[in-house]
Amino acid sequence: MPELSPPPHQPNVPAPAPPDAAPLPQAGPDEVALVIDDRPVVAKKGTTLLQAAEEAGVLVPHYCYHPGLSIAGNCRMCLVEIEKMPKLQIACATAVAPGMVVRTANDRVRGVRAGIQEFLLINHPLDCPICDQAGECRLQSYESAYGQGYSRFQEDKVHSAKRYDIGRDVKFDAERCIKCTRCIRFCDEVSLSHELALFQRGDHAIIGTFPGRPLDNPYSGCTVDVCPVGALTWKPFRFKSRVWFLKNIPSVCAGCARGCNVDLATFRDRIHRLTPRANPEVNRFWMCDEGRQSYAALYDRPRFESPVERPAPGDSRGARDASAAGPDSPWDTALDRAAALLRGVVERHGAKALAAVVSARLTVEDLYVAKRVLGELLGVPRLAAPPHEAGEDDHLLLRRDKTPNARGAEALGIGAPSSGRVKEILEDAARGGVRGLVVVGEDLTGLPGFSEVLYDRLDALVVIDWWKSPTVDRAHVALPACGYGEFEGTMVNFQGRVQRLRAGLRPHGEADPVWRILRDLGRRFGLANEYATPRAVFEDAAAKVAALSGLSYRALGDLGAPLAAARERFAGAPAPGA
Amino acid sequence: MTIPVRPETDRKIDELLTRFPMKGSALLPALYVVQEEKGHVSDESMEYVASKIGVSPAFVAGVVSFYTMFHRRPVGRHHIQVCRTLPCALSGADDLMAHLKTRLGMKDGETRADGKFSLASVECLGACDRAPFLQINDREHGPVDAAKMDEILKGLE
Amino acid sequence: MAFEPILTRNVRKPGSETIDIYMEAGGYQGLRRALKEFTPEKLVEEVKASGLRGRGGAGFSTGMKWGFLPKTKDKPRYLCVNADESEPGTFKDRLLIEKDPHLVLEGIILSAYAIESSLAFFYIRGEFHQGCRTFEKAVQEAYAKGYLGRNILGSGFNLDIIIYRGAGAYICGEETALLESLEGKRGYPRIKPPFPAIVGLYGCPTIINNVETLANVTLIAERGAAWFASIGRPPKNTGPKLFCLSGHVKRPGVFEAPLGVPFLELLNEYAGGMKHPERPLKAAVPGGSSMKILPAAKCDVLMDFDSLAAAGTSLGSAGGFVMDTGTCIVRALHNVARFYAHESCGQCTPCREGTGWLVKILTRLERGDGRPEDVDLLAGIAGKIEGNTVCPFGEAIAWPVESYVRVFKDEFEEHARRKACPMRAAAAR
User: Fold this and answer.
1) Which residue of C has its CA nearest to A158?
2) Separation of alpha carbons A475 and A463, rounded Å
3) Which residues of B touch C169 (CB under 8 A)?
4) pLDDT exceeds cutoff 90 at A314
């Protein structure tokens, strides 16, 4: 279940109860009827008051409660009044009961909340101006919503460890910490790595690690996500941007076959961080550190900004421009030339001399257009996607398969990533059997069957990719594609769930999304379809490819939808890490 | 990992692991056993105990730091704990502590360089009828005035 | 003082801690009889009928507590003995453990029989070195005589007992913190519900009883519920009780009297009156340091659960202490607050942050840096803690602060106004 009050934790604007509302609504057999803030509410049996209230639109402020972790009940922020109970009760740990009458916002509750806020801030450094959490800090949000607005504390604060590396990528400021223990519970219950613990007691209690055993697990960044304050910060993001300047775009991580749902945070046309977006079916609330930093490659690896042409054997125009190895060309010229080179191969050797290596890191839309244009219009007999594997599947999210759209390639009939088929193509190319090769989103170097000699045997090498690579450097025509965050489209994760990736950045230089490059190439071979947007491409694919039937962008929404073949899997299947 | 304790200590801990319906309960007794041998609970000891019980070293360190009777550093051969809580304070605990500091030339919380004494004021030891009350290692003394204190210290020489 | 001690009948005998002396005085006869005559259910009924209320602090009916155990028996049940006596002013359980361990042990065996538990834990505070040694020996003696182990006295009832030493944490006297500690963790009180009777030690139904409570179970088995219920102030405050008295008294100690004994009788007759005749009573905390203070004028109270509640304080663990007119109340409260700040487990916000804050204000007041607003602030902070914490520790700090400041408001205000302790200033003159 998604974390229902994600940042920025806006307080309630309570809607008045409908005047004609029954005092207690009818509840079904597995339901409980109760009253929360004068509103009749029906909740599932066994839910907590906090969940029931949030589902009814009443946010009960809380720090330590997190839907993906066990209940700690230590922050005391969610204390609410329940009729017939003398003491306030914590909403996070109180199960709904029939006929309960709950008040979450009366004077008594608000007075206690203000008290909790005051307590939490007495030893807090109040260093919001230099705190990365500022803007998405629950202390801030709740203080402005529920605080009394001043402190009566005039003593010396308790001082504690500040900004030290509690892990490779995580900084810890113990003075900002409110000891909610979310991070500890994450390491104990989710990553199962157990690095964190509370030490000491009373107001000297401090979270820490054992000497020589820092926070070091593949999911360490999640401790930062769950930290409701600025105590744990993600080093790669520190001081990069004030969070209120960030634009969060719902997308999907393309680091492996899991396809964790993410928020892609951009500012000034640059991705500054990826954070997990809750999806109970795919990644619950989590993502791995590798995926979290996967965007960094966009900025670390050199890109190329515009189409590049190089001379090809027996190509008159190539010879004409041979003086300059790889001058930038306008798109139309480059596409014309790519078409001409490929057409030349067909004319001289037949379509059977063409092959394509396409990446399972491409979107469904990219691969669908690739299949239509290369397979159907050009008659390329062999399209293959290479596998990329590393590590092992783990207990939580990480997949050995690093291709985020392998199931998509399969669904489209390109076939699952296969080293055998790629090897066959590349060895054929080295032997001279393949004379024209289209490579999309892959660097041939190191692929199965690759040898340097194959470059010399090709009459046409057309490469579409988002960054420079040895293959791009040898291409007769290299066309710059949009990188992660610059394109939109869909991918199918290993579970068979189709999910949308969205764009948050302008394309680098003159880069274009792969599907559009291929569409424009296709037009040179008589492609009639407009394919104006990825949505249009997807809808055409859904109409024509049986595996995608019944799907549409609208149906995918923010959380995706399963392929027909995988629908059963999602009917009541436990979420990962549950 | 090398075992940082004597074989009989290791055996005692193995025995503790079988004593309880759940292994985790062996943690406090195991820490006592280690402290009994070593005089304190070092990082190395904590890692050792963690591996015996099957919990993380961080967890063990968290537990050790929660309880006042586990010493992270060596204490004196005579570890003097003077109760300072109200019933003892009403009966002159402050004077007793002041006297001890002068007599031993030490501050509260200190271990003397020769390792003979450590001195700590502690909270209620549950012997308010014998206030002011103190413990030296596992022996109890109270009520203790300056003269009685001098006598006790003499016995430790 | 016509009352004949029952709980402490043996404690002054030489060798009182040995099984021989205990049995000479009729020890283990109650157990023998109960195992023969009582079903577990009947024993629970007997304890209910006796009106026995827990002697650990909360004063909850022992029989009723036992009755909360689930009817199903699919999981083992545990009896945990709370021998983590830590409330300042309280040292009564120590007396029983050190001087009459078999009285306690017999009560443990009886109670385990009543709740159908075959494994009991004796959680004793780590600082009680002597008590631990004595109790260990007593357990060995009981095993040797067949009062512990398999098929006790041919009844088919089995019981083992494990002694578990705490390691220095007041909070472990709170029953769910005790369970956590017993599981080898930091002593963090648990969120309730579920209560330990349903989900306790290792997730199994568990009863936690205080040492003195269990000693009383022995008496009930020995002499019957009706006898027990006739002592004290029936129907709700029955049985003999151990009262501690310390501080400025002539003879500090543990005194046995029926529940409902007048406080002034305890003070003047049992404890011999005030220590310094020239300094009369200023205030008393009859129940232990976490309970509310009574000024001398209100000390004419009966020492039982309900009378003290009516007087605005509580019997608590009956760890009473008194202060004479030479006592600075601000200084006394500072001491109490410092204790609770030191012992706060730090789990939940109000207690973790609030206790430290209280100490800082009291330190200033006592040092002579007080401000007029401090007095109300102290009460205000206590008010924000009380009722809002995971466990009753919140009240344990809030109650003394609230009551000391209310009862002795003038003295606090004078500290703030004069920027000094008026008593120390007077002493210096």
Assistant:
1) C356
2) 6
3) 66-68
4) no
